Amino acid sequence: KNSFVKASVLIAASDHGFVSGAQHQRKDRFMDSPFDTAFFVLQNVGGAKRYPIPVSFDEILREAFRKSLPTDAMRDRRMKEGRGFGDKDGGGGVYK
Questions:
Q1: What are the residues whose beta carbons fall under 8 Å from the beta carbon of 96, sequence distance 6 or more?
Q2: Residue 47 near residue 69, CB atoms below 8 Å
Q3: Residue 79, class by beta-carbon neighbours within 10 Å (0-12 exposed, 13-18 middle, 19+ buried)?
Q4: Contact assessment for residue 31 and residue 20, using Cβ atoms and an 8 Å cutoff
Q5: How big is the CA angle at 54 (ends 69 and 3), to the nearest 5 degrees?
Q6: Which of 41, 51, 52, 59 has the highest count of CB atoms within 10 angstroms of its CB?
Q7: With 0-12 CB in 10 A as exposed, 13-18 as middle and 19+ as buried, what is 44?
Q8: Model-level pTM?
Q9: What is the pLDDT along the chain (96 residues), one digit of tens a residue?
Q10: CA distance 43 to 7
Q11: By three-state DSSP, how is residue 19 classified?
Q12: How far apart are the first and last CA of the chain?
């Protein structure tokens, strides 16, 4: 175990989304995450003293990531438009 790791949180793909890099070209900004995300806080002794990690850190982080989940309407539009190749994208895009 690394002595600099002061906290770690694993967030399931189903519990968070992300902002599309093409957000300025799309109606819908948020997308479902295809993968789990691991978050690590690395601190040396001085950093840990100056910036202590709050007890509620895990829940604060999960709530922040949860806010990027797309709505059902966003998911439905994405599926109908069939923009990508994955199941969450309508399965095949222009090659359907």
A1: 82, 90
A2: no
A3: middle
A4: yes
A5: 100
A6: 41
A7: exposed
A8: 0.74
A9: 799 999 999 999 999 998 877 666 667 778 888 899 999 999 999 999 999 999 999 999 999 999 999 998 888 887 777 665 565 665 554 544
A10: 9
A11: strand
A12: 47
Ordered DSSP codes for 1-15: --TTEEEEEEE-GGG
Residue 27 corresponds to which tokens in the numbers above?
């109606």
Query: Is 31:77 a contact under the CB 8 Å cutoff?
Result: no
Question: Among 9, 2, 7, 25, which residue's Cα sits nearest to residue 66?
Answer: 9
Three-class DSSP labels, the chain = CCCCEEEEEEECHHHCEEECCCHHHCCCCEEECCCCEEEEEECCHHHHHHCCCCCCHHHHHHHHHHCCCCCHHHHHHHHHHCCCCCHHHCCCHHHC
Q: Are 30 and 70 in contact (CB under 8 A)?
A: yes
